[in-house]
C-alpha cells in the first residue's frame, strides 16, 4: 500500500475508517461564506435564491458561489476578523476530533470555502497539532486582477480548486478511496449540510446530513440514503459504534432518509 499513500494521504496509517467532512455549517455552527454574503455582500435574499437555483438544477454551484463571493468587497483581513467574531465551532467537534485521533480515523475536510480562513479558525479552536492531523482540501484566495493585494478594498477573489461546475468537485477526492480493492478499502463516511456537498453525497458508505438543511432536501428528492444529525455528538456516537463493529453503515442509514 506504500505507493498509494503518496496519492491517498489518508491511507498513511492504514485506517479502517476515514471521515470526510464539509467545513462551513457542518464543523461550524454557521456558514462563513453565507455570513459574509448576508452581512457585507448582496444579502440574504439573493444568496438564498442562488442556493435554490442550484438545488433545482437551473444553475451550477460554481456560478452561484462565484457571484456570492464577488459581492463581498471587504478587505480579506477584515473578513477574517469579522468571521472570527461571529463563527463558532460545533460544541462536540473537538471531542469527535480527539476520538478520531485516538482511534486512527483520519479526518479529511473537503470544503467549498477558502483555505486561509479554515486553517486560521481551526488553529484557534483546536491548536497547531490539529493542523498536522487534519487534511484540508478546499478553494483558496487570490489577488483580484488590477489590485495590489487581498487586504485592500475589492482586492481578493476566490480561486477555485478545480475546473468543475462545483468549483471544488468533492467526489474527486473520495473516489480513489472508494475504488480500492476489497481488503484495502476503509469504511468511508461523509458529513455535510448544503449545496456544496451535492458532489460528495453519493460517494461514501454513509452520509450524515445536517437536519433541516439543503442537503437533506436534495437527498430526499434524489432518494439518496442518509442519516441526519444536529451536532457532532450524534455523529460521534454513530462512528463509535461503526468503529467498534457494533453497527453497520447500512443499518445506520436505515429509516433515516
UniProtKB/TrEMBL annotation:
An example of a GO molecular function for this protein is: phosphatase activity
What does the UniProt keyword field contain? Hydrolase
Q: Does the keyword Mitochondrion apply?
A: no
The cross-references to SUPFAM superfamilies, in alphabetical order and at most eight, read: HAD-like
Q: Which InterPro entries match?
A: HAD-like_hydrolase_phosphatase (IPR050849), HAD-like_sf (IPR036412), HAD_hydro_PyrdxlP_Pase-like (IPR006384), HAD_sf (IPR023214)
PANTHER family the record matches: PHOSPHORIC MONOESTER HYDROLASE, UPF0655 PROTEIN YCR015C
Q: What is the protein named?
A: 2,3-diketo-5-methylthio-1-phosphopentane phosphatase
Organism listed in the record: Coniochaeta hoffmannii
Classification from the root reads: Eukaryota, Fungi, Dikarya, Ascomycota, Pezizomycotina
